[in-house]
Design a protein that fits this description.
Helix content: 25-40%
InterPro entries: GNK2, GNK2_sf
Largest sheet: 6 strands, antiparallel
Strand content: 25-35%
Keywords: Receptor, Repeat, Signal
Oligomer: single chain
Structural class: alpha+beta
Pfam family, one: Stress-antifung
Organism: Quillaja saponaria
Protein name: Cysteine-rich receptor-kinase-like protein
Bound molecules: 2-acetamido-2-deoxy-beta-D-glucopyranose
Order of helices and strands: HEHEEHEEEHEEHEEHEHE
Length: 287
């Protein structure tokens, strides 16, 4: 394990992220889905073309793109989705590193998914457009506890519920926002669905993700639920580019220094682990 090339690749990524958080896409999690192909398959050739087309088309994609290459049974479908505050350049570079990572970590696989802070990328030998998909999923949580609960739970839940309502009434199926808190001055939240699913499916995906928060992240200062069709996240520091999103709210005082934060990925959930393999990565971000 210690000598595996995988670990070296990941260590290199972690180092890059640590050195230059602002410009390097931040890897979070991936799953290789248990469907392998034989050596004579043309799937890898199609996959290569699909991933290249995603990359080539990324700059005029408005943050989401899907494509496919080849014919059944070796047809390769792929899609990516970037956060709306991610610049076209960063979105593109996220797709590039995600493609490289996922093809090296999941060789011989017909289906895989990876999440970065800035983007999500997945491929499969089946059509993956426009269907609500909630597995495989990953939970990530901030290892720091809320020491004195002081209404944090209620404030966070209220914020996230209002973001879900905003997201399902927006064209992008995205919302991000901030709420005042008595202990931490602010709680920041973000919810996003892929734009290929219906408003109704988006609401389902986000609502169920919110109901996972007590399971994954109870008493924690930050948490995320990552699914193929939607993601949610909350933190006590501004983890998204607030200036890129909206007329920025007046900031009379500087935000407090971000707390030391690190993320401990949870192993794949039992429901998902039957058919999916995941790679929990110990990850310490500089925040
Ligand atoms: C496609 O294959 C070529 C040649 O092996 C490689 O250089 C390139 O990085 C691949 N592209 C993707 C997106 O995997
Ligand atoms: C974009 O993707 C399509 C297939 O989805 C592909 O035909 C095309 O070559 C790609 N590149 C550009 C610049 O459109
Ligand atoms: C995604 O794929 C579907 C099915 O092929 C297609 O109808 C749709 O136009 C594609 N969307 C984008 C954004 O490429
Ligand atoms: C995808 O590949 C798996 C494994 O080879 C196979 O069992 C499955 O039927 C394929 N799905 C489609 C839609 O071709
Ligand atoms: C947060 O607190 C500030 C200053 O106390 C206030 O101006 C602002 O309206 C509050 N925001 C919300 C969403 O309650
Ligand atoms: C937060 O709320 C959830 C669900 O309402 C509950 O299960 C959990 O115990 C609460 N956590 C804290 C720290 O109060
Ligand atoms: C945040 O967004 C603004 C406006 O788009 C941009 O000028 C700035 O470079 C972004 N900051 C980061 C850290 O990405
Ligand atoms: C795993 O695959 C088996 C056989 O295809 C299926 O019966 C089962 O429902 C799947 N489980 C999950 C969690 O997808
Ligand atoms: C997943 O892969 C393992 C090891 O290759 C195999 O034993 C198992 O049967 C596979 N499970 C499914 C659901 O394909």
């Amino acid at each position: 394990m210690a000598s595996s090339p995988l670990l070296l690749i990941l260590s290199a990524i972690v180092m890059q992220v640590t050195l230059n958080l602002a410009q390097q896409p931040g890897y979070r999690f991936h799953f290789c889905i248990n469907t392998s192909y034989t050596a004579i398959s043309t799937f890898p050739v199609n996959l290569n073309m699909t991933l290249s087309n995603l990359y080539v088309n990324a700059t005029h994609s408005n943050g989401f793109y899907n494509t496919s290459t080849g014919q059944n049974p070796d047809k390769a479908y792929g899609l990516f989705h970037c956060r709306p505050y991610t610049s076209p350049e960063l979105c593109r570079s996220c797709i590039k590193v995600a493609s490289e990572l996922i093809t090296s970590l999941c060789p011989q696989q017909k289906e895989a998914i990876t999440w970065y802070d800035e983007c999500m990328l997945r491929f499969s030998n089946r059509s993956i457009f426009s269907d609500l998909e909630e597995i495989p999923k990953a939970y990530l949580w901030n290892v720091n506890d809320i020491k004195n609960s002081g209404g944090f739970n209620e404030t966070m839940t209220g914020l996230m519920n209002s973001l879900v309502a905003q997201a399902v009434s927006s064209r992008k199926l995205f919302a991000a926002g901030v709420e005042n808190d008595t202990i931490f001055s602010s709680i920041y939240g973000l919810v996003q669905c892929t734009p290929d699913i219906s408003t109704r499916d988006c609401r389902t995906c986000l609502t169920r993700s919110l109901s996972d928060i007590p399971k994954c992240c109870n008493g924690k200062r930050g948490g995320r639920v990552l699914k193929p069709s939607c993601i949610i996240r909350y933190e006590t520091f501004p983890f998204y580019n607030t200036t890129a999103l909206l007329p920025p709210p007046p900031a009379p005082t500087l935000p407090p220094p971000p707390p030391g934060t690190s993320f401990a990925p949870m192993p794949p959930t039992p429901a998902a682990s039957a058919n999916y393999t995941g790679k929990p990565i110990s990850f310490s971000s500089v925040r």
